[in-house]
Amino acid sequence: MTVDMAPPGTPDAIRAPEIGERAVAVAGESAALTAPRMIAVGTAVTPTSYSQREVLDAFRITDPKVRSVFLNSAIERRNLTLPAADAHGVRAPESQGDLLDKHKALALEMGGEALRTCLKDAGAELADLRHLCCVTSTGFLTPGLSALLIRELGIDRHCGRADIVGMGCNAGLNALSVEAGWAAAHPGELAVVLCVEACSAAYAMDSTMRTAVVNSLFGDGAAAVALRSGPGPEPDPKPRQGPALLKFAGCVIPDAVDAMRYDWDRDQGRFSFFLDPRIPYVVGAHAEIVVDRLLAGTGLRRSDIRHWLVHSGGKKVIDAVVVNLGLTRHDVRHTVGVLRDHGNVSSGSFLFSYERLLEEGVTRPGEYGVLMTMGPGSTIETALIRW
Q1: Strands 160-165 and 190-197: what pairing?
Q2: C-alpha distances in angstroms, 63 versus 52, 55, 72, 200, 209?
Q3: Residue pLDDT, tens place only, 214-233
Q4: Catalytic residue numbers?
Q5: Which of 157, 162, 278, 324 would be 284's cystine partner, CB 3.0–4.6 Å?
Q6: What is the pTM of this model?
């Protein structure tokens, strides 16, 4: 899918020829001035951080092969909410009902914190929020997380909302595309994408190799990004700050639709996430195709992209993207850093990297960036941004 973020009335001179069924916005300055902008970001994690060795010891996993998966993951620590140990130090498996309760509690806690942090960064209040899109894949909630947060935080009950459930690690960019469309249609209004992944509530903890990759990889985390197009409120405390969202492009890989999946584990009586060991190679083989489609018609080459914010999907996934796109380790320094410090926090991972990039203070007006996520489907999603 390719999405055109150029507003109505954009001159043909800054539009590309038809690609697929739609024209796409070229990365011109005029388009960047009127496109929705990422004006603020905020993140949150659960309180307790564990090293990989501490997780192994907590569940008394002794199999050398499983321990090797954990200890060679390029992850130093992750935020997790593990079941309490009994008097003998044993952590009993949680029922599916307990896991759903955990997801709801953690989602509201982390989601609320990330949303407040993001709005503070935007110089805004909860009362200023006009549309909220919530993303989660680590539990099922009805009513959705957006409605629960509106009640929990006292957000205006007339606030527009949407919930994206079950799309996995790529879903943050899917939501960003949806919310950018809303922001473009409502100039001056504040929209937020909130990704909340309580990965502790999606674990089937055992010592098998089937679950080893998943259990060694994911951590709890939430991230929010605020969007606005056109002029902000007067006086605007942060006028036109943050990059413009120019274009989105994605790709579904049907042959690998079962390679990443969340399905019912009959042996354990709960849902369990499965990752095929071939995923890094599948993602790597298709990364170039999607990025080339993203840049098609813009006049940009990959070498023109100054900032790369790639999903922290795992060491092998990051390596495959680096090799296939010809990136440097510096290009993915924040991707690697988020993986090291938090593990894979699923749909919000790229926003954790984006936050670190902003904290560096190295972006300059006119520079371009690419956001990239990947997840079940198997899918790769991308976005082109310009400061």
Answers
A1: unpaired
A2: 14, 13, 14, 22, 9
A3: 889 999 999 999 999 987 66
A4: 169
A5: 324
A6: 0.89
